[in-house]
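notes to self, project folder thing:

trying the whole complex as one job this time. last attempt i did each chain seperately and stitching them together was a nightmare. six parts in total, labels are on each line so i dont mix them up again. if this works i'll redo the older ones the same way
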Amino acid sequence: MIHLTRRERFNAAHMLWNDKWDEQKNIEVFGKCANKNWHGHNFELFVTVKGDINKDTGFVINLKDLSQLIQYKVIDKLDHKNLNLDVDFMKGKMTSTEVLAIAIWEELDEGIAKLGATLHSIKVQETENNFVEYFGQ
Amino acid sequence: MIHLTRRERFNAAHMLWNDKWDEQKNIEVFGKCANKNWHGHNFELFVTVKGDINKDTGFVINLKDLSQLIQYKVIDKLDHKNLNLDVDFMKGKMTSTEVLAIAIWEELDEGIAKLGATLHSIKVQETENNFVEYFGQ
Amino acid sequence: MIHLTRRERFNAAHMLWNDKWDEQKNIEVFGKCANKNWHGHNFELFVTVKGDINKDTGFVINLKDLSQLIQYKVIDKLDHKNLNLDVDFMKGKMTSTEVLAIAIWEELDEGIAKLGATLHSIKVQETENNFVEYFGQ
Amino acid sequence: MIHLTRRERFNAAHMLWNDKWDEQKNIEVFGKCANKNWHGHNFELFVTVKGDINKDTGFVINLKDLSQLIQYKVIDKLDHKNLNLDVDFMKGKMTSTEVLAIAIWEELDEGIAKLGATLHSIKVQETENNFVEYFGQ
Amino acid sequence: MIHLTRRERFNAAHMLWNDKWDEQKNIEVFGKCANKNWHGHNFELFVTVKGDINKDTGFVINLKDLSQLIQYKVIDKLDHKNLNLDVDFMKGKMTSTEVLAIAIWEELDEGIAKLGATLHSIKVQETENNFVEYFGQ
Amino acid sequence: MIHLTRRERFNAAHMLWNDKWDEQKNIEVFGKCANKNWHGHNFELFVTVKGDINKDTGFVINLKDLSQLIQYKVIDKLDHKNLNLDVDFMKGKMTSTEVLAIAIWEELDEGIAKLGATLHSIKVQETENNFVEYFGQ
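result (full assembly):
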């Protein structure tokens, strides 16, 4: 059993806002992140998979396949997009880094299994000071 | 004569769009950066000043003063903002990294002179692959 | 259950020295780190907490609260200080990175619980080549 | 129980190739990595050990000893070498990052035990986008 | 006048060797870099261009065009290659970082002029400790 | 003419203090950096030399020679030392990054000339947010 991690990146806009609350409460909780005109980040995504090594290739998973899967299921939908408005798998959700990481897990879990490995963790880095990691429930 | 550089950071949304052009032309030129729902970045700003060393302090400029100036004149206006909508000194301008760097120069030049040093360059890093530098005309 | 990590930084002086040993023995064990006139580092601190996501915020913990707690309990006491002489929670301890990480855990554990999350790990990076991680006993 | 990680680096050439397959199949599976004239990387190696803290030193392990062990058993054999041709402990193996990480584990496991700690993981970073981690079986 | 820099990366093998010298002299001068079985690096390439800002785009040069030019003229020829054996524009040359930087300048200078900007510098980073910069003669 | 840069690192303690001033004035000017019990940093040093390429080697300067010179004249004197107390070439000087950069220039200038190249700049990075560069007078 060995772990392999692939990093990908995307640049996106978002806003933290809870429609159930008034503006004052939103600003109290989310601070500058509640700016109604949006702000944005260079996000870094680390997808870690695990599995046994294929004797013929020396690989857990072919990085070409893993990278294509992440590109198609996640990056194409997030890069240069608005997380609140443009992304099918974020519809109706808060766009916190935590919620985003779980949503990305759900996008990738099945496809990675089909490639013969197991999804181990999703790490999303929002700034050089903040990141979240999700390991499934 | 010695150079000193201070790095600051801000997270902002923006869009590249020229109102004189139709949508097709904008997408042709600006690609994904023309997404009407905005996208965003973690920008890094490097402000380089130059001058002679003060014998009593060993400093070209007191970093505390320089950092406060950048905070007040630039970061407070850009951080968690929309470069196209929220920023007084970007009104009516393209929000390319090039134009942003020159606008930041104009915000800081005079204040740095008052602190006794000379502004040497503004570097704005938009992603880990792209940055611009402006040295004044 | 999701993990969230906050990075903070501090610059401090220290010395590795065991009073029970003579100078020769200290130099033999600690090498250059036993310099009696002190040396120092830019330390990086990574505090990882875990918990369930709050439905209203999308957060495990509000980063503003976590950051304030770390600032008040740890950074204010360590930054621009001497780890051997200035820090109440390091009194009478070796100032190795290992011991420092455990001491920081003890400073933060209770406060993070009060914020509704669980402290998962403390990582302290002393140089780009060395770091330690503590996960509680 | 605490974890300590030491980073070391080496620059090496390699090629991904399975002798059981013809050229077409090798290129199909390994892509550009099957270039017969070799390519190479700046590899980063992170060795993580764990154990209890020695009261007299505050250390899990003396970094000087750990670094010397890694140097002698691993770096001297890999740095500025060809992973397919020059390295005794890679003879007859695929030179994927996965296989390399396991081979490095086997080189270091015993020596770290003799230094009084336990090897926890080997991380090998091949590019800024790809790394693997091995935790023993 | 403003400067814009694009970073690209490539992984390559090479060897430092002067055919006019015997083996002893080569090892004396080039040390481990003279290993006849090759070694390799993750090279980083920084291409800096300068020019005036186009009023309609806010750009010195369209990064899409610059990136495509670098890809076609340089990266496709260097990535996952052997600098001594595979690269047309390095034939008969020493593969030091210095010589490589100048050769890349010659590959790109004309194409950048055709895109309406001026090549300002080529920076090639071989390891995190060493890089060279060439500004034209 | 081409530029080559070598990075080296050292960890040191220091304090900013002007003996001509009382404590209040020192704290007013130097803030936390005036802590009498010292603080410290992981400094990064970038030495840039320039010259013509030697036809036989492809080098401006042999990195082995440059690195040894920097080690002997600078790093051995600064690493794990106190800049105010331990360093011959800092005696009686303020230990600001600016003054340190100039002092390092003076230590290296002549030796680099003897190796056949010209010293172009000294860059000293004190934290990830602050660095200075000196290009000679």
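what i see at first glance: The longest strand of chain A covers residues 2-14.
need to look closer tmrw
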